Amino acid sequence: MLYRLSHSSIINGSYKSLDYGNFSPAGIAALVAAAVSIVVKEGMFWYTIRAAKKVNSSALRADAWHHRSDALSSIGSLIGIIGAMCGVPVLDPIACLVICAFIVKAAIQIFIDAIKKMTDEACDEGTEEEIRVFISSCEGVRKVDSLLTRKFGNRIYVIAEIACDCDLPLHVAHEYAEAVHRGIEESFPLVKHVTVHVNPYHTEAE
Asked: Span 125-205: which CATH code?
């Protein structure tokens, strides 16, 4: 809530400054504080975003952009301070409004990504194709009849139907399915669980 209010106040303050010409003078201390804030917050952004990519966490990614938004706000303050020192105080509200637009854009992107993950979106086509190729290369698999994926948070669930020779003993077909199961989970770390169903494969079907 405080985060939303702080950025709302930036927009309101910027608009009022532009509308009424209420510009406040700034000094060297404010300039140094803004510069330090930019460096610290940008550093926190890169540290957090690397951790988010490492564990594929949307929550950490959102937190990283929180730091980036603070850095952008500080950039607006820095521009405004420099503008005030150079006799162009109107740069402050203009910069703040532009930076707020970037913050809103990042928030919308994070929101859309979260909605997709909550609605069981399939994983990207590249990952699906890699899984399909891997299954096709497994011993005993004559064909991949079906492959379905869905995202749950930062993990992937896989449902696959494979075709094996119809004259195989049941225990052999089961071993092939288990090998596919284990292989996917070992080769694709983001996969949380795999369900493999075996269909009979008839040569004349080709």
From this structure: 3.30.70.1350
DSSP H helices, the chain, are 2-20, 28-55, 58-85, 91-118, 125-137, 170-187
Q: Which of 162, 165, 173 is nearest to 195 (CA)?
A: 162
In angstroms, the CA 82 to CA 141 distance is 67
Domain boundaries, the chain: 2-118, 125-205
Structure tokens at 78: 């820095």
CA gap 74, 85 in Å, rounded: 16
pLDDT, position 115: 75
Distances 5 to 67, 74, 112, 203 between C-alpha atoms, Å: 16, 16, 22, 67
Residue that is written with structure tokens 């996969």 in the block: 191
Give the predicted TM-score (pTM) of the model.
0.51
Coil, helix or strand for 138? coil
Tens of pLDDT along 67-113?
887 887 788 778 877 877 787 777 777 777 777 787 787 778 778 77
Residue in 62, 87, 61, 90 with CA at minimum distance from that of residue 76: 90
If we measure between CA atoms, which residue out of 150, 145, 174, 182 comes closest to residue 161?
A: 145
